[in-house]
Write a structure and sequence with these properties.
The chain contains twelve helices and 23 strands. The chain is α+β, with helices and mostly antiparallel strands and about 425 residues long. Helix 3 crosses helix 11 (about 380-400).
Length: about 425
């Protein structure tokens, strides 16, 4: 398309997914124009800049999931990107520790998944634990993931912003998407023209998708993640320390993280939030969101799907600082319960819910056609997965565009039955 406000591709959302998709589009379609529409004043103002910064290794997920493949490959690619660009990275590794026989069986399942996914994991017994982290405590055995690392997520996103701008991607900050009218993208302060729209809007991805006729059976339920900083010195806290997760739920539990700047923190919580950007107090309160989300949470409470009542009770108790600290101390020794200081900036996890089955969707969901593509469930660990996940999204876009009159086209676009299947979403 020609003109200052006309583009071949428009991406809604300036988080890690919008940034990596823009980067991949310019690689795949170097001659085509790309813009990113972001309602905030900078990139990564929500989940992408507020997450733990952990590069996961990929052993939590079943081998047939997109998460398993993308986490394994994304860990390597993101680490390489950080090294190439001189970004901070802490190759700390992760210990997953057990407290009883049941959790030991959970570790064995994680090891099986890691083996199937091609992820390196090592068994560590109690006598060997001090070599990895003298603060860690386990029952009989623990698992060590040498490829788990930590980065500064905001720093990574700023580097991707600069890369995209060098490649000619246009960013419209402070620009809120409102609706689409034909090839026109209507925002609160301007109108843009774009032949193809990619929705990477995070907490609002489901709203935009439904406008385009996709994901009617889904809605996003926000969960708030809070971290608490440890103010005392713990120089031997070399690794991350995680509990054995409940694999039926998409949350990994409160754990110890050592960030790239040496900060030690516990968290996150997974507390149901009552509107999509419910970070603190009544900030960004939206009555319509409040009532819609409250209605879905009431349904989950009434039906007790995926043991929601127990989850909600446990998470709400963590607003009590003492109980929050206690939920993590069983993982360690030599950590002072009174040594925790301030709460760090909270994040909101955009968790997709199937409104019919009342199940939390645990894998990525991408739906689209020859006019638009929608990243509906870029759930954790989307930051780790972002680079291979972006390739997958752009491959879906390329397949959907094959044979679409007037659309941007790529020489390697699939033809025939493969393209037809992709266009059906």
């Amino acid at each position: 398309m020609n003109g200052p406000d006309a583009f071949d591709f428009a991406i809604v959302g300036g988080g890690i997914m919008g940034l990596t998709i823009a980067r991949e589009l310019k690689r795949r379609f170097p001659a085509h124009s790309v813009c990113v529409v972001e309602k905030e004043t900078d990139v990564a103002m929500h989940a992408s800049g507020r997450n733990s910064g952990v590069l996961h290794a990929g052993f939590y997920y079943t081998a047939d999931s997109l998460k398993a493949r993308f986490t394994r490959d994304g860990n390597r690619e993101m680490a390489e990107y950080c090294h190439q660009h001189g970004l901070k990275i802490n190759h700390c590794g992760k210990l997953v520790v057990a407290t009883n026989e049941d959790e030991l069986r959970g570790l064995e399942e994680l090891k099986r998944r890691g083996d199937r996914n091609g992820v390196e994991l090592m068994w560590v017994d109690e006598t060997q634990l001090d070599r990895f982290n003298p603060h860690a405590v386990t029952y009989k055995r623990a698992l060590f993931s040498p490829n788990t690392a930590c980065v500064d997520p905001a720093e990574v996103c700023r580097a991707l912003l600069a890369d995209n701008q060098r490649q000619g991607v246009t960013f419209f900050f402070g620009t809120r998407y409102r609706r689409r009218r034909g090839d026109t993208i209507v925002c609160d302060n301007r109108e843009l023209r774009a032949r193809y729209l990619i929705n990477a809007a995070g907490l609002y991805a489901d709203v935009i998708a439904r406008e385009h006729g996709f994901g009617q059976e889904y809605t996003i339920i926000p969960f708030k993640g809070i971290y608490l900083k440890y103010d005392k010195s713990a120089p031997e806290m070399r690794t991350l320390i995680y509990p054995v997760p409940r694999l039926s739920q998409p949350f990994l539990g409160v754990h110890f993280t050592r960030t790239v700047d040496g900060t030690i923190k516990i968290g996150p919580t997974a507390t149901p939030a009552f509107w999509r950007e419910h970070y603190e107090g009544w900030q960004r309160f939206r009555p319509a969101e409040f009532f819609a989300i409250a209605r879905q949470l009431a349904r989950l409470w009434r039906t007790d799907t995926f043991h929601f009542r127990q989850l909600a009770r446990e998470e709400m108790r963590k607003y009590n600082r003492r109980l929050f600290v206690q939920s993590a101390l069983h993982l360690v020794r030599g950590i002072d319960a009174d040594g925790f200081g301030r709460f760090l900036r909270p994040g909101i996890r955009a968790q997709l819910l199937n409104k019919h089955t009342l199940e939390l969707v645990q894998d990525f969901v991408v739906l689209g056609d020859g006019r638009s593509m929608h990243v509906l469930n870029a759930v954790s660990p989307a930051f780790t997965c972002s680079m291979p996940f972006a390739r997958y999204v752009v491959e879906r876009v390329t397949a959907c565009l094959a044979g679409t009159p007037g659309a941007p086209a790529s020489p390697d676009a699939p033809k025939g039955p493969e393209a037809a299947a992709a266009r059906r979403g």
